[in-house]
Amino acid sequence: MTLAGCSSQALYNVAMFGNAYVEAKKKREGRLYTQKKLMLFGGHNNKVYLGCLSNSEYATDSIFNEYGLHGSTYAVNGIWNTISIYGSDYSQYSPWNPYASDPPVIVDQEGNFYGYFTVNQFFPNRTRVGWIIQILAEGEKLER
User: E strand or H helix at 141, and its extent?
Assistant: First the structure.
């Protein structure tokens, strides 16, 4: 399954998830898909928006848009920036630190929780979504 591109209407506070957003059904390869926008939030009380887990490298808030605010290796709050608190191998808020005490959370705009975004396979409530686990595995191998 693939996620549709995330919009630029990012939420900046976990408490604001009351804004429901479900992408309209799209016709792709002859089938209809209904997909939710899945987002990463990190930092103290998960108040910092870290980007969307979109597979589209062109979505403005996608973590895969290397020129975007959330996908660049130079982004201040980027998970791909090795010197940011969200991309360092040593930060408590980073998904790449196997000992992080407070890794990013994955949620949709309705407030549904999809687990923690962390390489630590033993972290309580780590995401169990297969394609997200693949992102973590591939990201762990990259030289960020």
Answer: helix 130-141
74, pLDDT greater than 60: yes
Q: Going by C-beta distance under 8 Å and a sequence separation of 6 or more, which residues neighbour residue 27?
A: none
What is the reported pTM? 0.75
Contact between residue 48 and residue 77 where contact means Cβ atoms under 8 Å apart:
yes
- Answer for the pair 99, 108: CB distance below 8 angstroms, yes or no: no
d(CA 103, CA 120): 9
Q: Is 29 left (phi over 0), alpha (psi -120 to 50) or beta?
A: left
Domain boundaries, the chain: 14-141
Q: Dump pLDDT digits (tens) for 28-56.
A: 333 333 378 899 999 999 999 999 997 67
Q: How far apart are CA 138 and CA 135, in angstroms?
A: 5
Task: Say if CB 26 and CB 116 are below 8 A apart.
Answer: no
Residue (of 132, 141, 7) closest to 68 by Cα position:
7
